[in-house]
């Protein structure tokens, strides 16, 4: 009999063992646990273990500074690390595996308390392969895992307070609630909201729900005591999250836009999540004869609150909304378990009308097993083969990368500031114990102070020079890069995506000329002597590149004006000997339909609803210039007419358009192109010019090392005299800043 305690414990132990082994293999199968967040956790642990412990200061993450990472998990991990002396990442992986398995146990306890042992086992089996739990352990959301393990335990105690004496009940519940707030405050706020909503519904319908004031008191007292226990911490952390230092309230526009654009929850998922709301009431009616019972109210609240929280941008809060879906996983699994149990019961009753009891139990067991296995192949669950593939997707660390981290730890000064891409940077800051600027996307930042170091790191790894006026951004790779290009991007008001408007790549710009009447060709990237300047005045910033050889000099200039939607591109050719300049060929890439009108070329991007426009200043299309369309690029051709000194200019920019609703769409586009040609130098914005100079950034942030994992970036660093290669293996190159800057 399954009901015997020995059988229950044996089956439960088997399920928990499978769950732990599955999770432990995910975090150790590739030697290092997957995910970047483990590096963040390690930096918090190291800050806690430092001589000057401060729960609100991280000495390494994002260059070091104010921290809002809740320290509960990290305090626990630091104690275990200090006691065992085992590798830190192994300890973190074991802790995460243990608490992720505890989610299975706590779920079993809660469901068994309400619906019995069979449904408890169904829930435990499904929870073993829960897609959200496996996802969390793969991206290293360890505090989230602990929080999701503690919440069902609290609810279990809430529904069974008689199992404890009054003192034990209040003490245990208060301590767990305090630990929850100290571990993950947003999970704790979800828990608090669920509890308060459940209490409100129970009080409002107290007669129907059989809920007395005494029961409400049993819930409220430990809740208040738990809050009091951690009140010193909460009083300090809430102003950080929700005040001017936090980014959750939308104080940093680009973080706000990035969150809305990338982290919103699909309406399909929200609609599907409403299904358990109905079923919990139905199953409560079948079990107790009432729609409203303590457990139906609790599970409905546990479903409704995450749904509302996932839409909290409506209320002016901007954070990772997808993470609220993790709270829906347990109610959804319980609902599925109820459906499985009831379906198996109905079918078995039909099939076993005249069967013996043992035969009926056997048929019902087969039905239950079949339905469980069927459900495990749905997207709500992650079987091992999918879990391992997911682990590989989130895998950041390798032996080669860890070798680079150990080199940094052993061969650099403790206060050396490093720069790295996002995921490796978090590992470097945590396990290398160095303040590191990581190129993290803005949607993953929660503090204002993190945005600037993330932007500096991103810019350093992306280009040597950047300038924008709020409408256009010009990116210059630098003359030391193999991809020496000027790229002009559009800055969208309603998107973090910056579509490419125009690019000038030295390797794709050819000059055809004659030296003593002998035809020759040279590409801009072939010059040995190159001088780059960034010239600023009050209203514009210019990138000037001067190239010269024994025969001639070429000056290339791109100028961005404050508040203007178009940038000016100028070429000046000066002969030093007997050179005649014939043709300039410029390859560039852009997406859309080509339209030539008057002295402009428009390229219509119907996906982004933008018109990229090239306008000639003095030359004329069809006479001095033409544009050829190739399969994968455009070619702009200028006739230099054999002159010995030539200057030519053109403007590139863009404008948005709205839909394809016009009767004559081509004429509509031509009208826009013509209007732009009349107003291309008009000031349409009062936003300032913002510029980035890599040398200035290195000096300002006192950067000592840059870690590069993308081999395509190496030429820009290895050829630049301000860097020297300090460490290199197959996956990571670390450059040290050595030259005066």
Q: What does this protein structure show overall?
A:
The protein is α+β, with helices and mostly antiparallel strands and 741 residues long. The protein folds into 3 domains: 5-30 and 70-230 and 340-393, no CATH class; 399-464 and 691-737, Rossmann fold (3-Layer(aba) Sandwich), CATH 3.40.50; 470-477 and 484-679, Beta-galactosidase, Chain A, domain 5, CATH 2.70.98.30. The protein is 48% helix and 22% strand. The protein is built from 25 helices and 25 strands. The strands form 5 sheets. Strands 11-12-13-14-21-18-17-16 form an 8-stranded antiparallel β-sheet. A 5-stranded mixed β-sheet has the order 4-3-23-25-24, with helices on both faces. Helix 8 crosses helix 11 and helix 15 (275-288) runs antiparallel to helix 16 (294-309). The longest helix has 28 residues, at 88-115. It is elongated. It starts with a helix and ends with a strand.
